[in-house]
Write a structure and sequence with these properties.
The complex is a heterodimer of chains A (381) and B (346). With 381 residues, chain A is α+β, with helices and mostly antiparallel strands. Chain A contains eleven helices and eight strands. Chain A has a four-stranded antiparallel beta sheet. Chain B is α/β, with parallel strands linked by helices and 346 residues long. The chains are: A alpha+beta (381), B alpha/beta (346).
Amino acid sequence: MKFKKILPQFLTLLFIVIIFGFFTMNAQENMDTRGIEFGFGFLKQEASFDIQFSLIDYDGSRSYARAYLVGLLNTLLVSFIGIVLCTLLGVVVGVARLSPNYLIRKTASFYIEFFRNIPLLLQIFFWYFAALRALPMPEDAPLLLGSSFMTIKGLYTPAAIWNNFDVFFIALIIALIIIYFFNKFAKKKQEEEGKQYPKFLISLAIFIIIPALTFIIGGVDLSWSFPELKKLAKTSFTYEGGLGIPPELIALTLALTLYTATFIAENVRAGIQGVGKGQKEAAASIGLTPSQVLKLVIMPQALRIIIPPTTNQYLNLTKNSSLAAAIAYPDLVLVFAGTAMMQTGRAIEIVAITMATYLTISLFISAFMNWYNKRIAIQEK
Amino acid sequence: MFKYVKQLTSLVAMVAVLFTFTTETMAAKKSKTLKNTQKKGFVRCGVSQGLPGFSNADASGNWTGVDVDVCRAVAAAVLGDANKVKFTPLSAKERFTALTSGEIDILSRNTTWTLSRDADIGLTFVGVNFYDGQGFMVRKDSGITSTSQFKNGISACTNIGTTTELNMRDFFNSKGISYTPVAFEKADEVVAAYDAGRCDTYTTDKSGLAAQRTKMSNPDDHIVLPETISKEPLGPVVRQGDSVWEDIVRWSLNTMIEAEEYGITSANADSMKTSENPQIKRLVGAEGEMGAAFGLDNEWNLRIIKQVGNYGESYKRNIADTGILPDRGPNQLWTKGGILYVPPSR
């Protein structure tokens, strides 16, 4: 009886459709009685508000759609930096947690217990307001690394001014493609003939030489613009020129990194401890050096344990970045689900778009991590 | 197979019945809000998260302020007791959603009346209880005494989701000054960040600046610049679609203002019943049927004046005596050089 099998599933589906239908109709009804219209036409309207920090060209005369893009890119920026940094820190702390050195081991576990047990929002406030209180005013800021200033209004560093950046960028991609094929070739040679190339050095050389050539023959030119102190009023200063990184971004990145790294460190520790002791001893007994043991035997196996829970942490970090609204970092939630929602009053549309956006970002991260996980999984033969 | 089809049809029919039922009950009744309020026994009022003088809770949770008094006046009118109000603190971002979704019935939260808000998002503004304008605060030692001294590169702290963000842009653009907006979700964070030195100036409604200045670590270090860059008529808001409720809130506010005009105060309201002036008598429920149209008794306005006081009393108690804005400026009666002018209760 195929029909009998399908019926319950069909009914369940119908039930879900009805529930959705009910909520949609209910919302429609309520919006009608209150004279609210539903539609996405507002995205084309002029936003008429400015945003503190944007990766793309933006000002208030652009559309709400453009403001959305600014918020989205800011969210992606802080998530990307956060993920990279928390992975690095997490791996270091996770390994340190297993160090034979008492002091290193205890410091690592103290750090983990401390940071993962304090609510993230509090940490964000702490880093932001602690930083604001501690950082010097622009006029008192000491010179960092010869050309940068860390001030209460942000980090000011020299900005690169490129000529023909696209040529340079294409050269960079070509270099990466050549490196990829070279490594494939080198691996094949090693497997077939046992011939070993200094893979890393050659790759590095390709990576440097090809883009460098564009400066000579491609018309690429790079100059720097340095931040300069500017007087706004008797006691009020700022920096002009150069690249200004707002303190909100720095505080948010710091808080997200320190918080999420604790979880990743625990994943790394669990992963390493999950590899049998015999593996390490067997590897050592065939004469591999400790770093080879870690690189060739322990890590490939540990990664299989580390990757899936770490994916969760990447997703958490991305979603947690929405706490940015509390400290004025113009992310998707602050710009779009905040100001834009207030100015247009389109709560339902904007919340729907925002939710769909976070869902899409999360699914992309998941898909990428699943792909990576599959790649490193045991290949059954 | 037919058996299942039959079951299915009845299920669909049931669901259809359910739908028609809900839609019919939704379209019914004229002042649902008034009925619900009387049934619940309290007025649901949305206020700010703490703005001294307008809506601010003390340590024991008692709300005071001119915005709070509007809700108290409505409670006195429809429930007979000015204390029967449930206050919901809302951020600038949450306020309209809370009102349109029916979580609150009056939004009295220093909200600027603008065309797009009134027309677009299912809201109706009922009047103005405070005429305000946007201004700038700077540190005194900066030597800035006028917005004309602002220079390119200035950073300005403010709140998101307010007209402030838009006015700020209009202002700086018209002056051709490039600026960095630093917009926070909550006022407390704006104050903390500006106080720490993150921004060169703090911009919001002038009444807000005056009120927030009292929260700074050293209030005397800051000054509010004289220029006003926008019109900000602040007033209570209700949901669209319940005109009776809208009228009740509008005339509760009007009653407070008109009572001041005729010299009726919380202290002398009862004795005014025997006044010679018919206009005064109407305001204290001694003449005419002023409550009938709202479905209220005749002494609804008398209760407002007795329990909450007239507008002048409310202003003095909340804004003048607290040192926020001792000078009433435009918020003075039209008869005394201000612009408070309300239609007559008759």
